[in-house]
């Protein structure tokens, strides 16, 4: 859902600031929730404006900040388990992540997650 326009928000706030109506009546008149009206009045008082904030977005894994270090760890210890990779990353960067987070990161970076098992001589 798109944010309400600044013009519409100004109409709501000015209706409250005029003092001729309650929050509930203004919310009903403009077909918005009572909480939205209260939020606008509070935002105007605290921030001084009623411009809508940034909408949503996707979360970025904190591990991706250390992508180069993780690739270096992987190249140096290519036979480690996911738990060992978590510990190695923590030792190098101070960032602790779970094994499932490490697995998802390896998938994103297209790194194999299985240990290298030396072939048996015949």
How is the secondary structure organized here?
Layout: H1 6-17, H2 23-30, H3 34-47, H4 67-76, H5 82-93, H6 99-108
Order of helices and strands: HHHHHH
Task: Give the proportion of residues in helices.
Answer: 40-55%
Radius of gyration, whole Å: 26 Å
**Dominant shape:** rod-shaped
Work out the count of structural domains: 2
Average pLDDT value?
88
Descriptors:
122 residues, mainly alpha, 2 domains, 6 helices, 0% strand
What features would you describe in this structure?
By secondary structure, the chain is mainly α. It folds into two domains: 6-47; 62-108. It contains six helices and no strands. The longest helix has 14 residues, at 34-47. It is rod-shaped, with a radius of gyration of 26 Å.
Brief characterization of the structure:
This protein has helices at 6-17, 23-30, 34-47, 67-76, 82-93, 99-108.
């Amino acid at each position: 859902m798109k944010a309400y326009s600044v013009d519409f928000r100004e109409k709501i706030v000015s209706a409250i600031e005029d003092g001729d109506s309650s929050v509930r009546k203004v919310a009903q008149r403009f077909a918005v929730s009572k909480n939205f009206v209260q939020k606008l009045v509070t935002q105007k008082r605290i921030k001084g404006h009623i411009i809508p904030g940034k909408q949503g977005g996707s979360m970025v894994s904190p591990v991706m900040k250390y992508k180069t270090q993780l690739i270096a760890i992987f190249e140096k210890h290519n036979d480690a388990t996911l738990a060992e990779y978590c510990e190695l990353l923590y030792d190098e960067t101070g960032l602790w992540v779970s094994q499932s987070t490490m697995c998802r990161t390896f998938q994103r970076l297209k790194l194999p997650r299985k240990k290298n098992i030396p072939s048996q001589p015949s």
